[in-house]
Specification:
This protein has 940 residues and is α+β, with helices and mostly antiparallel strands. The chain is built from 29 helices and 35 strands. The longest helix is centred in the C-terminal third of the chain and has 19 residues. The mean pLDDT is 92. The structure holds ligand ANZ.
């Protein structure tokens, strides 16, 4: 029979499902291998051909690893909480769970058609209560933990309380809020219950914090920094403003150093690691306290300064060596001391400036390095080393959330400070002996300090150390490491997410008890905030904890995806998020494939939760994803038609073919790529593409309408979306799989171009033909293979092995084509050759190979667990060599001689050759030089 891909593919997909071919157990004598994909958010649009790219690669790898004798875990699931289903619910009233269900069904149907070897018995859905029960449980563990810096890990709040009860706050070295209290054991015991709870909240790894958030009014929620692009929401493009709100936060900063160190231990793409390093943003420097000068001269309320428990401004600097060049201080407009520092004369200026900065987002503030703006508070501080009086300004280039929200400005050392000083006519004290102060001082230049007291003449390193020592002596500063990363906001004012397992009593949060988990998402009448502006959960009638009010925000999108690889290990466990045995067996993900857009979101949060779970002893590995690959984007390949413009400049209903554009005035228009083949427009289909084209006319070239082409993002609005269903319908899944790999290196972005797919399809048909005679009857022979056949086979065995191990999937495809061409030319139908070839091709084209494998007489379904053929280098040894034969130094011809012959036999063989004789012209050679495997030189 000819290659009937449809029947074959359906048959095997059904077989795999019925027989649970890819179900794995959590134990085996084989070594384990865990291959995971970034699970999809099931959107309404379904999959386009770009989505499966990574899934196909990981599936090839998983299938290959099975053939190599590994016990392979290759699961799939759905990241099914999220905004689009909720937006749809707002528009249509349909419950997001219904939309989600429908979308999952579409995804599943599409995924099944591609022939993935997923163990579907382990499917997870983050929105299902038996999953989010454990997301809530992890939240509870975080709430019940604090970070002990001395121990370098998270410990239980109960341990902290015990310490407070025996030793008070002394000896606690924690990552906590800034404003923790100092107390003795007796004082602690005397604290009221609420005061204790308030204090503990400052230590918990998930805690409430008033923070400036990215508030998107149109979406009715807070967004993470990476969900905001240039002041607009990434989803929907709605404006985002800065707003203060009480929010759940995750103390990810506790793990900053470990998150940084861990990067050196994992096999991830370097650019991705670099993005995480930048995000974490470690800076080594110093904190310096500048005492506030003369505050009795000011009218402002002194008690404010006393209340804030400081009569100094603390700055963070990476250039403490420049302290003698400080001529003013700048604090963020949001700094807590602004009110206290503002003198009555300056009040109007300062207030006007604050109003102005509120309009700018933090991103704008960071991005703008040109505009200079600020206002003087009217107050001064004193330089701790030379006692100089320094004015304090506010300006929006200083960010409230970074360092201490205050900088010592050194106009002779820092570009922004320089521009600021110039603009406001503030003094500039040169401290480094270089000509051009606009060039940032080079800290590696040695012995260049001037006007800098005791550090004049020192090197940069010596200077920094000397200044820190002096500051420490004076109690005015110390060395400090600062991280740019902030604690992560952990809440959304939305419906379709995990409820936070917390209720409030007297304004303080308490966990519900573990046996109340899962805290189910309640039903509500509308998916909108309440009239009083509370999140949608505020609408739920009778949704109340016996002890108090439930938290009304839900968890953010990243909650469920921060631990899902563990759930796959033991997906149906209702006692634990995964059993200890399962975790000890699978340990971590060996290969994780997904998009680079998750570089700082998901991949950072997952590492954080993993480290936390490790600290508590629930998991065994410090890092969750050993190796990670980012697949490139598949771009769309858009097609265009060109509308003729008439003399008045109006569009007509006539379209000009691409090759004739030079002769006409036209305007381009996207046309559905599905009605274009090899750039030729299907005119009939075009007339039906839109009603307005019904009577379209065409100016053709050579009787055809040729479309223009451009590479763009694949998107509905550009009519360039290619659906895998259509490709499968036409060519089958095996062709789709191979073709997606054939497009180019996995990591690279590349345009989808259906033009080359025929070639891949023809290859599979040719492969099928190897096993059949002219009449398409299945026929293989049991004859011994020839050397040439063995050579072809072993070349591909080695090539595919090398390629897959290097994740170079595209290069194998062309090698398969070469192998099949060679074997076709050799008219090879030998069982031993073809059977091994089937195994080697199986990871790429699993359906056609399963069919042939059974036709070869093997038990159905056993191909997935066959053994990958062992490469034998002997078959590749060349046994003949085409010697260049040179006569008196001139190469005359080439002559193939067996490489097993010794030089004197080669000589005899060559001289006996009739053609060589002709060149010798009857003469007897004076000398014959044979270099084995290289050349034969005859001197006459
Ligand atoms: C004095 C100085 C002199 C500085 C000099 C730089 C150059 P990174 O590496 O990013 O940590 N800074 C500190 N806190 C800030 C804030 N909240 N907003 C804006 N800028 C802030 O940079 C740290 C440096 O950035 C610090 O060192 C401080 O300026 C500024 F020649 O202090 B520097």
């Amino acid at each position: 029979m000819d290659y009937q891909f449809k029947d074959i593919e359906q048959k095997w997909q059904q077989f795999w499902a019925d027989n649970q071919t890819f179900k794995v157990e959590n134990n085996s004598t084989k070594p384990k291998y865990y291959v995971m994909d970034m699970f999809p958010y099931p959107s309404g649009a379904g999959l386009h051909v770009g989505h499966p790219l990574g899934y196909i690669a990981s599936d090839i790898f998983a299938r290959y690893k099975r053939l190599r004798g590994f016990n392979v875990l290759h699961p799939m699931g759905y990241d099914s909480f999220g905004l689009p289903a909720e937006q749809y619910a707002i528009q249509t009233g349909q419950h997001p769970s219904v939309t989600t269900e429908d979308n999952i069904a579409t995804y599943r149907r599409q995924l099944d058609q591609i022939g993935f070897s997923f163990d579907w018995s382990r499917e997870v859905r983050t929105s299902s209560p038996d999953y989010y029960k454990w997301t809530q449980w992890i939240f509870m563990q975080l709430f019940n933990s604090w970070y002990n810096k001395a121990a370098g890990k998270a410990e239980s709040i109960a341990q902290l309380v015990e310490h407070f009860e025996t030793s008070g706050s002394k000896g606690i070295d924690a990552v906590s809020d800034e404003d923790t209290l100092t107390f003795t054991a007796d004082e602690w015991k005397a604290f009221a219950h609420n005061a204790k709870q308030e204090e503990l909240l400052k230590y918990r790894l998930t805690y409430l914090r008033e923070s400036t958030v990215n508030w998107c009014a149109a979406l009715g929620t807070v967004l993470a920094n990476d969900e905001v692009k240039d002041g607009f929401s990434e989803r929907g493009g709605y404006p985002v403003e800065q707003k203060k709100m009480m929010q759940w936060s995750m103390r990810i900063t506790a793990y900053a150093e470990r998150l940084l160190q861990g990067l050196d231990t994992i096999d991830w793409p370097e650019p991705l690691k670099e993005m995480q390093r930048n995000w974490i943003g470690k800076s080594t420097g110093a904190s310096v306290k500048f005492r506030i000068s003369d505050f009795e001269f000011r009218n402002s309320d002194k008690s404010e300064i006393e209340n804030s428990k400081s009569d100094f401004i603390e700055v963070f600097t990476t250039r403490v060596d420049t302290i003698f060049g400080v001529t003013f201080l700048v604090i963020a407009p949001e700094h807590e001391l602004v009110d206290a520092l503002t003198t009555p004369e300056q009040k109007a200026d300062i207030e006007a400036y604050i109003t102005q900065t509120k309009k700018k987002s933090e991103l704008d503030r960071m991005a703008d390095t040109k505009t200079v703006s600020g206002a003087f508070t009217g107050s001064y501080v004193l330089n701790p080393l030379n006692g100089e009086k320094i004015p304090v300004w506010i300006a929006d280039y200083v960010l409230a959330g970074y360092g201490t929200g205050a900088v010592m400005a050194v106009p002779s050392g820092d570009q922004r400070d320089y521009l600021f000083a110039k603009h406001f006519n503030l003094p500039i004290v040169p401290i480094i002996d270089i000509q051009n102060i606009e060039t940032e001082a080079d800290p590696t230049k040695e012995g260049k300090y001037i006007n800098s007291d005791f550090i004049n003449g020192l090197t940069y390193k010596e200077a920094a150390a000397a200044v820190v020592a002096k500051l420490e002596e004076a109690g005015a500063g110390k060395a400090k490491v600062n991280f740019r990363m902030r604690d992560a906001i952990f809440g959304r004012q939305r419906y379709w997410g995990e409820p936070v397992p917390v209720y409030f009593k007297d304004g303080l949060p308490y966990l519900i008890s573990e046996n109340e988990l899962p805290l189910l998402l309640p039903e509500i009448d509308k998916y909108l905030p309440t009239e009083s502006g509370e999140p949608p959960l505020g609408r739920a009638a009778d949704w109340k904890h016996p002890e108090g009010e439930y938290e009304l925000s839900t968890m953010p999108g990243w909650a469920g995806s921060s631990w899902y690889w563990y759930r796959y290990m033991d997906a149906h466990n209702d006692q634990e998020f995964a059993s200890k045995e399962a975790i000890e067996y699978w340990k971590d993900v060996d290969l994780y494939i997904g998009g680079s857009e998750h570089a700082t979101g998901h991949l950072l949060y997952s590492r954080f939760w993993n480290k936390f779970l490790k600290d508590l002893g629930f998991v065994v590995e410090e890092e969750p994803f050993k190796k990670l690959i980012n697949q490139g984007m598949i771009q769309g390949r858009s097609n265009f038609v060109y509308r003729l413009i008439d003399a008045e400049g109006h569009g007509t209903n006539t379209f000009v073919s691409y090759g004739l554009l030079a002769d006409y005035k036209t305007s381009p228009l996207h046309v559905d790529v599905n009605i274009v083949e090899n750039e030729v427009l299907n005119l009939e289909k075009f007339k039906k593409f839109r009603a307005e084209f019904e009577n379209a006319e065409f100016i053709l070239e050579n009787g055809k309408y040729i479309c223009g082409v451009e590479v763009e993002k694949m998107s509905k609005s550009k009519f360039n979306v290619v659906n895998p269903d259509d490709i499968i319908e036409r060519y089958g899944a095996d062709t789709l799989r191979m073709y997606e790999m054939f497009l180019g290196p996995l990591e690279q972005s590349k345009p989808w171009n259906t033009n080359g797919i025929e070639g891949v399809f023809k290859f599979l048909r040719k492969f099928w033909r190897l096993f059949h005679n002219e009449q398409w009857d299945f026929r293989v022979s049991d004859e011994m293979p020839t050397k040439a056949e063995l050579k072809s086979l072993h070349k591909i065995i080695r090539k595919v092995e090398e390629d897959i191990e290097r994740f170079s999937f595209n290069t194998s495809v062309s090698s398969f084509m070469i192998a099949v061409n060679e074997l076709t030319d050799l008219k090879c139908s030998k069982r031993t050759i073809l059977q091994d070839l089937v195994i080697v091709l199986a990871p790429y084209a699993p359906h056609i190979t399963e069919e042939l494998w059974t036709l070869l007489g093997n038990p159905a379904g056993s191909l997935s667990y066959a053994a990958y053929p062992i490469f034998n280098p002997e078959y590749l040894v060349e046994d003949e060599f085409a010697y260049p034969i040179s006569v008196n130094g001139k190469t005359k011809m080439n002559l193939s001689v067996s490489l097993t012959l010794e030089p004197k036999d080669v000589e005899a063989f060559v001289l006996a050759n009739a053609d060589v004789q002709k060149y010798l012209d009857g003469k007897t050679p004076k000398k014959v030089i044979v270099v084995k495997g290289r050349i034969v030189n005859i001197v006459v």
